Amino acid sequence: MLRILHDTNYDFIRWWKVMAAITIAFILLGLGSLAIKPPNYSIEFTGGTLMQLEFTQPPDVGVIRQTLDDAGIHGAEIQQFGTNREFTVRAQDPSAVSAQSKGAESIAVTIEKVLKTKFGESNLKVVRTEAVGPRVGQELRRGAIVAILLSFLITLVYLSIRFEWRFATAAVIATSHDVFTTIAFLKLMHLEISLTVVAGLLTVLGYSLNDTIIIFDRVRENLRKGRKETLYETLNRSINETLPRSVLTHATVLAATLSLLFFAGEVIRPFAWVMAFGIITGTFSSIYVAAPVLLWIERKWPRKTGARQASSTATPTSRTRPSPATATR
Amino acid sequence: MSLKYRILCIFALIAASIWALFPRTVIERVKRNGEFVYDTVRRVPLKRGLDLQGGMHLALEVDESKGPVPDKSKAIDNALKVVRNRIDEFGVSEPLVQKAGNDRIIVELPGIDDPRRAQDVVQKSAFLEFQITDKTQALDKSLPRLDALLRDKKLVVAAATPGAKKDTTSSAGLQSLFTADTSKKADTAKTDSAAAVGTVGGPGAFSKLLTQGNMPGEYYVAQPDVGTVTQYLTLPEVTAALPPGKVLRWSSDTTSLSGRTYRALYVLDAKPIITGEFLTNAKPNTSPTEGNLVEFTMNNEGARRFRMETGRHIKDFMAIVLDQKVMGQPPVIQSAIGARGQITMGGKDLQAAQDLALVLRAGSLPVPLKVVEVRQIGASLGQDSIHKGITAGIIAVALVVVIMLGYYRFSGALAVAALVLYILYTLAALAGFQAVLTLPGLAGFVLSIGIAVDANVLIFERIREELAHGKTVRTAIDEGFRHAMSAIVDSNVSTALTAAVLYQYGTGPVRGFAVTLLAGIAASMITSIFVVRTFYMLWLNRSREAQQSLSI
Question: What is the CATH number of domain B55-124+365-377?
């Protein structure tokens, strides 16, 4: 039997202050960078035009830029996309967006026309066009925020029923932490925030929550066993006991994520990056956010320690309400 | 549940999955030699999203730039019917036309190779009117007033040609110095053309831009001045001073006269003698003398009115006005016209005639629509995405198999067998529920392969713990499954809830992602709990010695 990290007894939570400092520094770095320069929203959110072009010969980016500038499309972002014959043109600045009030496609028509005149009709092909009016973008942004908040609320309710409110709150706080670290990551990596990335973010949240739940499930069970130990010790024990599972699952998910990152193409890459980071932040937050927060909540609002002591065994009711005896440390 | 039923269950699911995924014959509308025919193709019934098969997504809203629309929701409902009719006639396989929210129409056209044309067909108002050109010289009479108005109110806008500017603005003298060269050219050209067709306009700001045409109510405007005239015509003061009961309409195409390009401006009786609502059929045709044209037929009611009205207007000129543009040169009415008529396309190609016939048949849009969102993906890019997605999926499966076999050996093999069923079930569920597989969905599916084994990992780790506690293989397996259950259920349910939210609030590709995630969660619960458990039971039943030790 091949075993990894079996029967370990690390004191994970001991390092929570250091870890908190690291993660807060990371988040502040990200948010600070956001304050300096707003994030890179995709045209789905801001409105604008994106075109993916395939040339027969590697073109001169300067010529593309000049041609667009001459046509009155200023500040268009031109990026290589995959091979050196494929480029994306992104017209996203306010003047380009407001020009779309006549119709979202007008800029795309112009871009195609001027580039085809410049490079020759048969020398380039438009393989993808996305043009979004400003109002649609606004709605999508609101939709994404609503989706995240609503998923938090639903999670909170579900976990409150299945565990209890202290666990639920700790889990949701850990998950919100992942939202911030992921946003900081997106910003620091200069990744574009698109709908696919938002879907990736929500997957990360689900995954991180999964991880927290697995540990909390173990905590719930260990509390029910009623060992004579503090919640601090129970948490550490639970993290250690679930360690092999965590390593294995993270390995398989990482395998899937890396194959997406390297083989699934340019369009999916930002999603894969988010997911790759999500595995790290999700694991981190389950241990260093969820657990310390749970400890803190328990200190602040301790469970009513009734007559039942640590020696009592699990009762039917303790399924949803872990044994109260070990609440404080 | 006894072992027999469990195996039966698994095989029933496999059979159902294979049935759901079996390539089947579907009837598709395809275009062949310009005609739409029904054709049968065999393919796996997995619906691919636009981003995977290529095609076009359009979101349309009521365009209020030309005046507010009172009941937008109702207008959109009516427009929806028209758009749907047109798309049906346009002939793409499996188009989608639906209302989104209160005031938006979503159109999805898979496999469209000419997006611009598709967009025109969807967006064209196709409001057809027949109007008699003005024979009272109403505009000529109004010209002095218009000129005076523009002069007095200093409403003269920057003219497109410097020539126009020279006469009208005070600083023109200075400006003409800088632009003297071009203005001279324009001027001489003007006198040329004036000599050719005879000027109606005097020196006034407005009248000087107009040249009398060949028939009553027809004026020519040099192409560079069209913008200026259009601008004048939008000024409220000018609109008020235009002859009452008349409307001004541009021609849809340009005419060449003595080497200069002109666009005709028509003065028409505001009240159309008839509109396109009585149209029953329209079809494209080519005539050797008039080029491409659209022939139309009216219903009895329309034909009666048309006959009556044209009978009253013999020797008059009748403009055929489509979307406020005069199509071709207004023909003179020789005798009363009945149920049939034609619209000449003025040099446009046969496809334009086909499209016009199509939109006329499908009816006019009750309100103008504007495009608020376009996504168009080339078919080759979609194909490329599928290839890459499948490659990534195969590599992900291979890596997961290596990890599971390497770590859990025999039990890992059971999990891998379950993983194969997982892939089958998930795809079958997507096909069965007619879910749309998008690129993010494909990525989500690949990712879910990594996540799907989590339940098995949890169970196996539990079994290991139970074995470590000295339990027999059979009890260890039982206890392992039982203890892992609460963690599996809680984590999967919470992920499913997130996916449901994503489905509710996501659009297009993201929705596809949520559906894939949901299907994956359901399939992984079945395979990693039920299927793997059955495998263990089978194995325990088979061999006596198996009960002594477990490779895990």
Answer: 3.30.70.3400
